[in-house]
Amino acid sequence: MKRVNPILGVWAYAEFGAVIGAFLPIMAVSSWRHRHDPTRRVPGQWLRRIGRTATRLSTLWKFDIEGERPPDIDATAYVVVANHESQADPFLLSFLPWDMRWVAKAALFEQPLSGWAMRFGGDIPLRRGEGDSVRACLLECERALRGGISVMMFPEGTRSSSGDLLPFKDGAFDLAIRTGASILPIAIAGTRAMRPKHSRWFGKTHACAKILAPIATAGMTATDVGALRERSRAAIAAALPELRSRYGGVTSE
Q: What's the whole-model pTM score?
């Protein structure tokens, strides 16, 4: 693991804060104008522009996107799932070439600047373990999918301290089967060096997100949730060793 430099970390926070501050007024207007749109597509585009702009202005990060973009993803909604390496993962995933609504833990929405941007951008809050929050989150995800926009989830539910791939939770896969959306797995490598779990600082890294083959859910029922979950996890697990050999990270399962 690369050592995180606090000086570079302070620069990253300052730059990120300036970018959010510049975008927030536009996002507030966009959020109000599109408040009745279940896809929140346009506000979400502004939110991902924050990630891309902050990355392009930074000297700390270099990102690659590999794999094939599903040709129908602009018209067909997917449940997109990825391993969760770092709080910096959204910066990398903001370069994926399609629109999505994201599920994120509710505490992140309470943070100044970044939390406001997430709320304006149409991200969906979730308080793990709270039934009302889970139901509200899944209902909003269903509205988004039926409206034609993909939903992004981290099925591990949290970041791994060791970097090993954690067990996946059922939510994303139950959602996909109930709505008929295909699963689109994404393998991430390299972002742990950007901000390891329990670190306050962002560091320098070269990271990659690899788009894997979609997994169709047509004909599946609630009894297939476990099999779909494990198939999706296996696809990401199979891609990680080669990806981490080039971008760094834990290679054991």
A: 0.88
